[in-house]
Amino acid sequence: MDRAERGDWWASPWLVGAVVVLTALPMMWPTVPPLVDLLGHMGRYQVQLNIDHDPQLARWYGFEWALIGNLGIDLLMEPLAPILGLEPAVKLIVVMIPPMTAAGLLWVAYEVHHRLPPTAFLAVPLVYNYPLFFGFANFSLAMAFVFLAFGLWLHLARRGRLVLRAAIFPVISVLLWITHAFGWGTLGVLCFSAELIRQHDGGRRWHRALVPTMLGVLPLTPPVLLMLLWRGGEEAGGSTGGWFAMEAKLAYFGMILRDRWAGFDIVAMVVLIAALRAALIDRRLELSRNLAISAVFLLAVYLLLPRIVFGSAYADMRLAPYMLAVAVIGIRLTPRATARFAGVLAVGALIFMGVRLGGNFGSAILYDRAFSRELAALDHVPRGSTLVTLVGKDCIEGWGRSRMDHIPGMALVRRGAFANDQWEAAGAQLLRVNFDQARPFVSDPSQLVTYSQCRRERWLPIGRALPAIRRDLFDHVWIVDAPPFDPRLLDGMTPVWRRGRSMVLRIDRPAG
After folding, report:
1. What are phi and psi for residue 323, nearest 5 degrees?
2. The 3-state secondary structure of 443-457, one letter per residue
3. CA–CA gap between residue 26 and residue 65 (Å, rounded)
4. How far is CA 267 from the centre of its chain?
5. How far apart are CA 213 and CA 179, in angstroms?
């Protein structure tokens, strides 16, 4: 029977297309996407695009291209920014990440089940996840590509186009690795598990299916050489550590949908877990063996991954939302399910999706207002200023964090001013900071200040940070949402803008 005869109204191309488009709305509203690390990355794009003709940038920073597994948006900025401008180009890319991820998830669900189950829409809200809100931009872009590529992998296998698959996936795997190496690794896990199931379903026992499975995924292996070249270089740098921190992994799993309101986000997680539980106990539902095994493989990777890989923090946390999404799209109806039951599930899943996306949209509006209030300060920062920025932070943050950690990057983007929030990570970043005399206000996390010293953190208390600013090097100070401090520490500085606990100060210097 075709879709119309079965009554799968939720699988209408118009509805699916509308759902995919709808996922873009929360990121379309904000002027600057409110993603924590993204603002710092935007500062790097400014250097990347302008260092060759801006002597001031060249005095503070260095930038050299190299082939590393973390270049997705960096490379896209080269053609897009000259046409659209830096900020619109970044926004366009970020706006496209949720729809591409949603389209990939729904395509994978269709390929595995040979129809779109109504429960697949439950996974759509997972495109707005904590790693995305954290601003892991290249990683999130890579994961969008992962599910589109995995959908293609399954489609070609279903059609018996294995030669074509073997021909095109070496190119896809290299492009994905360049976007972000973690994405390539995730695709490898998904394709290996899917190929193992395909070989077993073809009549091979599990142990006899391993060799043909490994041969089947050989087209995904070319980036292994790139990885060896990258990590074997003289400046590869980047530590790896934080193994088997199970308490943290459990906490990360609970924060998969973390956005602004803890209750709203946690209840949504409960709904998803309840849906998976129902698939195990309700005879009208079941889990696809293909996607269940893929989710188990990803769970194993999640448990084995350390917190820091090659200097990139939260390596394990990034995988959690996509592991859950794979499990959720694996839910499907059994022959025991009635048309009425299927319709009710479809309506419920679409309502859940709409409520979650509506919440993300409302949250984005509120973050946009907060960012606009703070970024108004840049109108009072002279272009090319040697600026030091201090962003207030609590030792223990609430569920809805401010996302201002890398707002100094916008001073670099909009005013060409020095930003002390850039990362120093040899082998993992193309940018380096050449302003050593300004230490400690050179790189991340020197921009973050607190009221008192926080345990296990390098953030300076503001009472120590303000006196440490070299007034012969810096000409302006931008304080964002300041913790309480002694106003006498501002002696020798003139406020040129103030709003609440934020201010811009000009450092006074003797005439002549």
Report:
1. -60, -45
2. CCCCCEEECCCCCCC
3. 33
4. 22
5. 26
User: Does 388 share its domain with 419?
Assistant: yes
Decide if pLDDT at 369 tops 50: yes
SS3 of residue 499 by DSSP: strand
Which residues 6+ apart lie within 8 Å of 368 measured at CB? 29, 30, 31, 32, 34
The pLDDT score that the predictor gives to residue 4 is: 44
In a domain, 37, yes or no: no
| CA–CA dist 231, 374 (Å, integer) | 39
CB atoms within 10 A of CB 433: 21
Amino acid at 493: M
Which single residue is written with the structure tokens 């223990």? 396
3-state DSSP call for residue 86?
A: helix
SS3 487: helix
Inter-residue contact 359 to 132 (CB < 8 Å): no
**How many whole angstroms separate alpha carbon 246 and alpha carbon 249?**
5
Which runs of E-coded beta strand occur in 302-369?
331-333
Which residues are paired to 504 by β-bridges? 478, 497
427 and 231 in contact (C-beta within 8 Å)? yes
Last residue in a domain, options 364, 393, 425: 364
Place of tokens 């488009």: 21
* 104's tokens: 């990939």
Per-residue pLDDT of 234-282, as tens digits, reads 455 556 667 877 888 899 999 999 999 999 999 999 999 999 999 999 9
Q: What stretches of 368-429 adopt beta strand conformation (E)?
A: 387-392
- What angle in degrees, to the nearest 10, is found between the helix axes of 315-329 and 137-158? 40
**CA distance linking residue 212 with residue 210, whole number of Å:** 6
Beta strand ranges found along 381-455 (DSSP E): 387-392, 431-433, 448-450
Domain span at 406: 379-507
- How many other β-carbons are positioned within 10 Å of the β-carbon of residue 245? 14
Whole-model pTM? Answer: 0.94
Chain centroid, CA 77 distance in Å: 17
What does the mean pLDDT of the chain come to? 93
User: Rounded CA gap, 296 and 301, in Å?
Assistant: 9
Q: Which two tokens stand for residue 46?
A: 């400014």
DSSP string, 114-126: SS--GGGGGGGGG
State how many domains the chain has.
2
As a whole number of angstroms, the distance between CA 444 and CA 460 comes to 12
**Phi, psi of 50, rounded to the nearest 5 degrees:** -125, -5
DSSP secondary structure letters along 177-218 = HHH-HHHHHHHHHHHHHHHHHHHHHTT--HHHHHHHHHHHTG
Residue 373 lies in a domain: no
- Cα–Cα distances (Å) from 105 to 44, 101, 140, 295, 314, in that order, read 31, 6, 14, 13, 23
- Examine residue 22 and state whether it is found in any structural domain, yes or no: yes
